[in-house]
């Protein structure tokens, strides 16, 4: 009897202490100790993008395709989450990738603070499209912006003629180029860019009351896998952006860089310019400027206005150009106000 009592007491001990075993909870699985670590790693992995994004053309291509890559990746991760052992990790990675994608695409559109320029020069840039079938309306839209300086790209003779009559100074006698620079003040110098940039833009010196400044009107070819009439290999586009940056950096006068750079604002090339120039359009919320059907879903902002150090900006924005596959961009730029020394 004593032995039977001991056996009964031993068998009932787990129940008295509240312990549970696999036998008492057959539907419950013990979590692997590495499961939480794997979920945290999956959550952190997409953020490594900000470490590797400037490592070469491959990552620039990924940046351009980010609005397409991220939804595809999130979809694959959600499919993986259906598999029970991968559920936690898949959901964590999907949520993290979605947030990273949104940050990558939208962050370069967010407004950047700037003091109000004194005095301001209103600058507009528009790719009007060589095949534009609404030339009169396109020219009228540009004139209605009431800019002091206009950079007009892919400018046909009919549109150029209207702008020539609207602006006393500027344009160019180099009819091999479709880039034009127009101004309300005398243009004392107008020349092609040097070297390999020669087919892609103009440099003008404008004699505004209060001080001269430089304007670059540029239309770079789009980066692609190979060369064509309108495209160059990605590495060549990178070299053109670097050469353009060197020119602007070497200026001794205040400079404005405006035009269709075919440079997406989430690329390393854009960041290389933004590192020493002010993005004048981002004084307000920015957004896509290319309206081409085949790339519209990529949300590309490729038309820009930059100013050099010492100049500020306000009133940045986009405007419609009838018949064009681009939106125009506009901003008021000029010398930053002198610091208040009264206090």
Automatic annotation (TrEMBL):
The chain crosses the membrane at residues 34-52, 64-83, 90-109. Keywords: Membrane, Transmembrane, Transmembrane helix. The keyword Transmembrane helix applies. It comes from the Bacteria. GO terms for molecular function: catalytic activity. Residues 124-326 form the Endonuclease/exonuclease/phosphatase domain. This is Endonuclease/exonuclease/phosphatase domain-containing protein.
């Amino acid at each position: 009897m004593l032995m039977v009592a001991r056996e009964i007491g031993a068998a009932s001990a787990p129940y008295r202490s509240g312990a549970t075993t696999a036998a008492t909870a057959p539907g419950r699985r013990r979590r692997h100790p590495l499961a939480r670590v794997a979920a945290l790693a999956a959550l952190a992995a997409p953020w490594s993008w900000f470490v590797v994004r400037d490592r070469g053309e491959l990552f620039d291509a990924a940046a351009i395709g980010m609005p397409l890559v991220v939804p595809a990746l999130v979809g694959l991760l959600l499919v993986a989450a259906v598999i029970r052992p991968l559920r936690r990790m898949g959901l964590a990675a999907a949520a993290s990738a979605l947030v990273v994608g949104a940050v990558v695409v939208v962050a370069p559109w967010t407004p950047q603070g700037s003091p109000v320029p004194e005095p301001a020069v209103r600058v507009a840039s528009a790719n009007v499209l060589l095949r534009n079938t609404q030339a009169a309306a396109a020219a009228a839209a540009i004139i209605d912006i009431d800019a002091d300086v206009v950079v007009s790209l892919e400018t046909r003779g009919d549109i150029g003629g209207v702008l020539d009559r609207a602006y006393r100074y500027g344009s160019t006698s180099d009819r091999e180029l479709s880039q034009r620079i127009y101004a309300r003040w005398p243009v004392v110098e107008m020349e092609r860019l040097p070297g390999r940039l020669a087919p892609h833009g103009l440099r003008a010196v404008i004699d505004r009351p209060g001080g001269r400044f430089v304007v670059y009107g540029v239309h770079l070819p789009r980066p692609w896998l190979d060369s064509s009439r309108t495209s160059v290999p990605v590495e060549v586009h990178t070299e053109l952006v670097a050469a353009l940056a060197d020119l602007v950096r070497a200026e001794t006068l205040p400079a404005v860089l405006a035009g269709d750079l075919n440079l997406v604002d989430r690329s390393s090339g854009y960041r290389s310019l933004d590192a020493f120039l002010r993005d004048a359009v981002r004084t307000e919320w920015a957004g896509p400027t290319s309206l081409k059907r085949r790339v519209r879903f990529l949300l590309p902002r490729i038309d820009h206005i930059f100013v050099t150090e010492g100049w500020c900006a306000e009133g940045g924005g986009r405007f419609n150009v009838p018949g064009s596959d681009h939106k125009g961009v506009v901003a008021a730029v000029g010398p930053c106000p002198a610091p208040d020394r009264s206090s």
